[in-house]
């Protein structure tokens, strides 16, 4: 019997996405990492549209007071942002990690994602929900 070596480096066909973790980190997959790398991102600005519940990440090459560090994992294409302050600002609440698809807006130079509305804003208790 002849064995064939399985190559685990198969091309991944997918789309950019973020995973929002309970720790306050926002992880991005390899596809989002590729987009951010091509845009020259060493830092990023978070932009928030509260009406549309939409997050946009604008790549930045230099640090400023409002920029978040883009942390790339050495030897990997994905990475993280420390988004704890942003998530606190939008009152993010989820029991576990939430994966959010993202798309590159070439015209605006933004990586955009719609966040699930049920995880944003004040957390309603069951009593509050029944009184509505």
Report on the structure:
This protein is an alpha+beta fold and 132 residues long. The chain has helices spanning 30-38, 84-89, 126-130; strands at residues 17-20, 25-28, 43-49, 54-60, 68-69, 71-72, 79-82, 98-101, 103-105, 110-114. A five-stranded antiparallel β-sheet has the order 6-7-2-1-8. The protein has a five-stranded antiparallel β-sheet with strand order 5-3-4-10-9, covered by helices on one side. Strand 1 (17-20) and strand 2 form a beta hairpin. The longest helix has 9 residues, at 30-38. The radius of gyration is 18 Å and the shape is globular. The protein starts with 16 loop residues before the first strand and ends with a helix. The model has no long low-confidence stretch (mean pLDDT 86).
């Amino acid at each position: 019997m002849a064995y064939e070596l399985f190559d685990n480096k198969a091309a991944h066909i997918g789309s950019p996405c973020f995973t929002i973790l309970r720790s306050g980190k926002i992880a991005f997959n390899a596809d989002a990492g590729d987009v951010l790398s091509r845009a020259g991102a060493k830092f990023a600005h978070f932009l928030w549209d509260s009406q549309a519940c939409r997050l946009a990440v604008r790549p930045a090459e230099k640090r400023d007071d409002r920029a978040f560090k883009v942390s790339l994992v050495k030897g990997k294409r994905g990475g993280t942002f420390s988004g704890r302050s942003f998530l606190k600002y939008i009152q993010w609440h989820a029991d576990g990690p939430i994966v959010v698809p993202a798309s590159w807006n070439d015209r605006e130079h933004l990586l955009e994602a719609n966040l699930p509305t049920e995880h944003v804003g004040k957390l309603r208790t069951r009593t509050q929900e029944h009184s509505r």
